[in-house]
């Protein structure tokens, strides 16, 4: 449980970070809640860690009709942000509070988690349902990708070698909307065996996304049918159970969203 | 007279150091010139070792040596872990230590481990327990040798039963079979009003102590091997090292450092590695397992399969019991729990006829080791499930059925021995009085209550202790018993009460094999009952010395003196007195006239002091997801006498919690090639605090006649029937009987929906 020898650079600016990442096999370090364990197990063996911890990318702000979440905002920041204190955004705080334990939530960041692209990560389902995008910076400039464009597969993203997520941006749901997150967790890891984020708008339209069951988070088609959702089984939770569970958590997340949009809570 | 000190709740004496970080554990000791060892673990469950390529590792900075079996000066033959700390030419489980990389730092040792290449010739892996015992099954070990069963007697003072005399076609993987029988079971079941049966499965289960296994060994200039280690027993470890390395006995000194948890798993497992490396390299070596290594390379509890059938009559009498219990020993050829588990499966009940069989089977999974009440939780899971089913079939109240058949003193147990003082009736009656029991038929939909009872026979081993008053007037209790589960705090109150001293003027010291009075390993629920009895006698002997000195000093006959709170005074004339401190100063000085106030005491308990516990578990089951939520748990346990109720309740809570782990969470699973799939706390679930409900602890006191102040060993009984209570609660909530532990959400859901249960 001791990492292999690795270099360390604490970035002083985004530009500095991108420059440091030019070194072959360099790896960006945000909150370290995913990267440090795999370093300790020597599953990852980067040459250099570029620590982003000193960068000013942590604010959570309302910007017109959008909510901008800095890539280095922690789960704790999300659970305590007043910007999320509305029925339409409450699902974000639900979801953040279901991640890991308090120590993990104090350190883990939304950008780091998305870049790690664990297929069982909670937040992508909530972000998909809310229609979020990520903004990135690389030496080639800035770009914006949807969450489904970003998350290509297990532990695989569309990010370039020297491309960093700088923010998560999502449209603020119209007043009278409600959002919610529901999951059933693996009893050891706490990762969802199935998790669902849901958004219900006052016009009756809704969006639901599922995580934890397949290679990447998936939006449920408008019909609500889960038949086409890709579901993997494993020793602990077979495919039939996970598929069933996807339906259960989707219904529960929608119920929470519904209750919130009707102002019942 | 002052109030009795017995039965008063007070903090553990080791607590301040532990919570402030002042305790020095085995991994903390500073040793000059220390080398660090890391293990190369087998990636194969069963293979021949063709060769170990060391060169690349040896070229790394800081790597001092790469040791294989041939490099360790082991003289013992056999295949147990002390005789074979590193695999010789055949690996028999994935995770078995194959080589040690020894380096100047832990990081360098870890680098070295990555660079070692082991060339394996794979052999068929024996992973399935039932297939392993079938005639014609491939052997789990080719190089089978008779191994010593030295650790066998540690865990319980029960006989093993008789070797099976009947001819049964079994493979060579069946290392042992045990049969106990009495009466005609077939006839008894035939004449029953109801017969229920089932096959019950429990997995390999990890002890999950907080502190992974760790041991440091070095040689003194005179050649003495010193081992500072996290162990349950210093003398048992000294014996193991003596047999392993053939040194002079007095050239081995074992120091049992404060334990960071053990639960049965810390018996001479890493000491032979550290000692072997220190002897080979003539330098101090520490083996401190990482959690990953600890999961793979240590000795968890056996997987078991139990086929059980019981019968009863409408009047609520239990008739016959028939059990066939398969115990997975993994690579452990020395001992297994087939004897104790097939004894305990009869539970705390009377039977008219019984036929109980246990089989110890070798496979290519782990090395079996002890875990809190070895073989008992799995036995109680099977029996208590069926007792509930039988009660339903017979139309009898499940608590009344248990009460009617509960063993009482003077009955004959299935062991053939008379039942000593036994609290089964008392604990069941306490549960019956609990308000939760009255609610069992009026719970909301989806909730259920489950009852179960179980016992642990306790263990015996001769032990000795010393009590001495030092110059500061404080009574020091000296034993060699590893301070597990707070036994030192029990010694404190025993000595204080027997001597006449306030508890805060009694200190307890655990000493090492070079100087300490004898004590067996801490385990088997025997320390308080045996070492505690020795402490009592030692304190009484010291008190005699005290009274002799005081008698001369005060010119009063000893019989007319009493000792109250550290003061010796004349009965009826309390101002004629002298303090213990003053007397000790008069004794412990040049030209003093009194013998040191010091006593030695020993015990050799022969009668058993079983502890029985009954549990009531309240659950809610989510029928949509299969999740089981524990709402409340109640445990009533006969503890003999609660020397310190705070500690007793801690044991009851801890046992119940580990039982909840058996019921809902814990499973070491392998793939079909015998590789561990759940080798970290990301995969292996334990009952973390947020999943443990409020636990009501009901202390029942049926004094043990030979125990110190009536106390007995209580550490193991509380885990025994806890899983069964949760299983019965799930059945009450859902109508579904779970036959496999743990009851994970996917398994419960499969059972609820009648779909195929995940294996």
Rg of chain A (C-alpha, Å): 18 Å
Strand % of chain B is: 15-25%
Mean pLDDT of chain A: 96
Unreliable parts of chain A: none
| Cα Rg of chain B | 27 Å
Overall number of domains of chain B: 3
Oligomeric form of this entry? heterodimer
Based on the coordinates given, report the CATH architecture of the largest domain in chain B: 2-Layer Sandwich
Low-confidence residue ranges of chain B? 145-160
Global morphology of chain A: globular
Mean pLDDT over the full residue set of chain B: 95
Task: Kindly report the CATH topology of the largest domain in chain B.
Answer: Aldehyde Oxidoreductase, domain 4
The total count of strands of chain B amounts to 27
Measured as a percent range, the helix fraction of chain A is 25-40%
Q: What separation lies between the terminal Cα atoms of chain A?
A: 46 Å
Description:
The complex is a heterodimer of chains A (265) and B (759). With 265 residues, chain A is of the alpha+beta class. Helices cover 28% and strands 27% of the residues of chain A. The longest helix of chain A is centred in the last third of the chain and has 23 residues, at 239-261. Chain A is globular, with a radius of gyration of 18 Å. The mean pLDDT of chain A is 96. The model of chain B is unreliable at 145-160 (pLDDT under 50). By secondary structure, chain B is an alpha+beta fold. In chain B, helix 9 (338-344) links the parallel strand 15 and strand 16.
Task: Give the tags.
A: 265 residues; Uridine Diphospho-n-acetylenolpyruvylglucosamine Reductase, domain 2; Uridine Diphospho-n-acetylenolpyruvylglucosamine Reductase, domain 3; Enolase-like, domain 1; 3 domains; four-stranded antiparallel β-sheet; B: 759 residues; alpha+beta; Aldehyde Oxidoreductase, domain 3; Aldehyde Oxidoreductase, domain 4; seven-stranded mixed β-sheet; six-stranded mixed β-sheet
